[in-house]
Amino acid sequence: MPKPFPHLSRRQALQTAAATVVALGLLLWWLLPLGEDPPAGTITFSTGTKAGVYQKYGELLDNEIRKDMPDLKVKLETSAGSQENVRLVANGKADFAIAAADAVETYQQNGDPGADQLRGVARLYDDYVQLVVPSDSDIRTLADLKGKRVSIGVPNSGVRLIADRVLDAAGIDPDKDIQPRAEGIDTGPKLLGHGLDAFFWSGGLPTDGLKQLAERSAFRFVPIQPSLVAKLHAEGEPTRYYRATNMPASAYPSVQNNRTVPTMAVSNLLITRKDMDPELTEWLTRTVIKSRDGIGRDVHSAQLVDVRTAIYTDPVPLHEGARRYYRSVKP
Fold it and tell me: pLDDT tens for residues 275-302?
């Protein structure tokens, strides 16, 4: 026979109730800042191309923002990608955007307008470079791209920036040694084997555009070896943001046949400007962190967003509002 619950004295009951109230209060404080009204108004958020991870992440984050800040309207804008996003934020044409760290550093090194006003909100997840060819292609290495029709990404995209550097490091002139094409993840997959011999993509894993391609057509990835990444590192900043890694076998199971693929990755940042309202930025940072699991159910790469690593927004300093949030949750 189960033992009855022990009888609690009045004092013990009060202590238990008080502890419960404190625990609930801390939970509510984590989720919503008590005593503050959610920010209102309108912000512009620049994402990326359709069928890309930036766009999908932005849409899902917008849904979470509506829950936390119902009076804040978010205008989602598509773009070419990282390079354009950095310029839009720096010039005040977008309030927030996602951009790869190498694109941010390149903009700063060029001394382009507003570079000194850029600030970080959070380090998000990594983009993986994915060089895609038809399964029956004779392209096995980067050197085999010579003379081929290769999409190197649309102008002002992060893909274009990386593809040009990878090709150059491999001894291939993008303007002379290949037939360059400018396709994004929304158009490149449809043309593979039908006007394109290969295309570069840099994005989170998995990317919807490639998942859809895997459902209707066979393709494979051309490896990018660690030796090439080391060569890029030797060139100095901003190539220091590239790291040699392996694309996990689980990224595109039907394509990779349980095999990893050597490649390179670069971290993505959520950026804004120095003059963005600190309170709004603090709220947005909180939403980004606490919505990780919810967004991660649809955007797998978003599961890697973590409060312990989000503060590392090099090469830009943290925005003051983001800093407030991270300090408030510091263990």
Answer: 999 999 999 999 999 999 999 999 888 8
Burial of 53 (0-12, 13-18, 19+ CB in 10 A): buried
Instruction: Please give the Cα distance from 310 to 318 (Å, whole number).
Output: 10
Q: Tell how many helices (H) and how many strands (E) occur in the chain.
A: 13, 10
HSE-CB for 5 with a 13 A CA cutoff: 3
- Cβ of 133: how many Cβ atoms within 10 Å? 23
Q: Is the pLDDT of residue 58 over 70?
A: yes
CA dist 245 and 239 (Å) reads 15
Q: Are strands 118-134 and 261-273 parallel, antiparallel or unpaired?
A: antiparallel
Backbone angles phi, psi at 60, to 5 degrees: -70, -40
Distance CA 200, CA 46 (A): 22
Q: Report the distance separating Cα 23 and Cα 215, nearest Å.
A: 47
Q: Tokens 């090194």 appear where?
A: 109
Distances (CA, A) of 6 to 9, 15, 241: 10, 15, 59
Q: Is the pTM of this model over 0.90?
A: no
Provide the token pair at 198. Answer: 């290969």
DSSP 94-135: -SEEEEEHHHHHHHHHTT-TTGGGEEEEEEEEEEEEEEEEET
